[in-house]
Predict the structure.
Amino acid sequence: MIRSLDDFARIAREKGPKKLAVLAPEDEEFMLAVKTSWQKGYIEPVLIGNTEKMKRVAEKVEFDIGGFERIVGDDRQAIADLGLSMLFSGKLEIVSKGQIPTSYIYRSIIREENRAGSGMTVSVVSFWEVPGLDHLIALTDTGVSIKPDIKAKAEILKNALFVYRLLGNPKPRVAVLSGQREIGGALGSYRDFDLLRRAAAAGDFGECEILDATSFTEIFLGGRDRPVDCISMDPGRMPHILLVPCLDTGNIICKLDFFLDVTRCSLVATSRGPVCIPARSDTSDNIVQQLAMCVVVTDRMKGEVK
Amino acid sequence: MLRSFKEILEAARDGGAKKVAAPCAGKKDVELLGKAAGSGLTIPCLVGDGKAIEGMLKGVPLASLEHEIVDEKDPDKALGRSIALIREGRADMLMQGSVDHQALLDAVMDARSGLRRGKLTSYISVFQLPKTGKLILVTDTFINNNPTLAEKQLILEHALRLADTLGIDAPKVAALAAIEQINLNIPSTLDAAILSKMSERKQFGKAVVEGPLDIDCALSEAAAARKGLRSVVTGNVDIYLVPEIDTGHLLAEALVFFGKLESAGAIMGTTNPVILNVPFVSAENRLVEFAIAALMCKKGEDHA
C-alpha cells in the first residue's frame, strides 16, 4: 500500500515516463517542475501555451524544450479544452495545470465527461502527508462543488474511495466532517453524515467504513467530552478519507499545509485519468510531488473500471 | 500588545480577582476554579445545592481559598440564579459549570433575564503562535451556524473588540473564502469583498480587512504574491474571519490537533464575560479563558 509521497516518487520512477500535457507552463515554478519531473523520468511533456512565454521561462530555468511536442495556444479555455480532449481521446495519460485558472480546467473536464457519457461527478482529492501518521489522508472535495448536496457528496465519496483503493487499501476508513457541536441544532453537513453512513451500511460504497465521528475532536480524542491531548495521535484512529462539508471548508483546511507540518498533493480523478491541479501558489518541489502522484494513479487506473 | 497566554495571565492578575458565578459546578469545575482562585484571577461563587458543594470542597485547594456558596437546591434554577447575581452586580462573569451548552446560551441570550448585549453572540478562538510570538483570533468557531453578511459584520466587530482588549493595534483581518477572487457563485467571496470594501472606507477604524482571501494567501505573503495579491494582511494576519461554522469549527480543531497549537476562547456580545466549555480547549487553557474574561471585565462596558 502507498503510505507516503516518497512511495509515489519511487513508483513514478519505475512506471514513468507517462505522456503528460502541461497547460500553459508560462511560469518559472511550473516549468521548473516540468523539467525536474522529466529529468526524474516521470513524464514526457507535451507543452501547450504561448510559445514565447514558454520559451522565456524555459530559458530562465535552463530547460531545453526544443525536443518536446509543443502546441501553440493563447486562449486559456481553448488550451484547457485541447489538453482534456487529448486525455479523453487517449493521446496522452495525464494533464497538468500550468498558468491557467482551475475553473477553466474543471469546465473542460465536465464537458469531456458529458461527451463520454461517464456520468462522473468531477471532484478534487487532496492528499496530506502528516509526520507520524502511517498513511496518507485524502481530503475531498477540495476544489469543485461549492455546496454539494447529498447526491453529489455520495459521488464525491465514490471518487475518493476509487482513488484511495488505487493506493492499495481495499477498505478505506472515512470521516464525514461537520461543524456539528453541542449547540445550534442539526447542521446540513451532519444530516449528510447520517445519510452517508446509512448508505455505506447498505453497501452503496462497497468496502469501506464510515466512522462515527464528524469532528477532529472526536477523531483524535474518541469523543467530545475527553481531555484535550495533542501530544498523542493514534494513527489507527485517523481515517484515510475526510469528506468535507463544502468548498470553503475543503479548500481552507487542505491548504493549511502553508502553516502546518503537512505536505499536500492534489488531483482530479476523471474517468480517463488524473488531472494534476497544483495551486498557483505551490512551489516547484510540491508540483513535482503532485506529478509523481498522478503518474502512479494513471498507471494503476489501467485495467480499472470507474 | 499581549503576545502569549503567559502574558494574558499576567495582565489579568494585575487587574485583581473577579467574581465568577458557577452554576452546578462539577468536580472538574471545582478543580479549575481552585486553580483560577489560587492564581489570583477569580473569586468563585458556587451556585447549587449548598450541602453538596460543601461536600465537594472537602480536601480540595479551593476550600482554603476565598469563595462563596449560594444555596440553590433546584438545579434547574441554578443557572438563572447565577445570571441574576451578575445582573445585580454581585458577580462579574459566568462560567458554564455542568449546565448544558444550549441551555446556557439560551439563558444568556434571553432578552429579559439574560446577559444579552446586542443582536448576537459569537465565539472567538484565540491561538498562541510560539514561532512568531503572537496571538491570532479565529471567529466564529462555535456559535453561529451560517451568519448573514450583517451578522458577519457583528462577528468581525466582536473580534476587533477582543483584539483591542488584547492590545492588538490596527488589527489585520483575513476574510476567508475558498478562493481569493470574487466569484458570484461563492457567497463567502462576496461577503468577504464587501467587508473588505467597508474597511477601505474606514468603517472598522484602524483595522485592515482583506478579502476574499484563501488560506494560502492569508498565511503566506509569498503565496499571495505569486497570485498577484499584495496587502499588509497577507502573511501577517491577526484575525481570521471564517465563512460559516463547518469551516470555523473544523479549522480551529485542525489548528489544535494537527498544528498542536494552544487554544483558548471567549464569547462576545454579552454584558459580562461568559466562559463556555469548548471541547477542543484543554483544561490548562481554560485558565487562560478566565484571564481573558478578567481582561474584558477590566476593560468595562465596551469589552464585548
In short: The CA atoms of residues 10 and 297 of chain B lie 15 Å apart. DSSP finds eleven helices and eleven strands in chain B. Chain B touches chain A through 49 residues (CB under 8 Å).
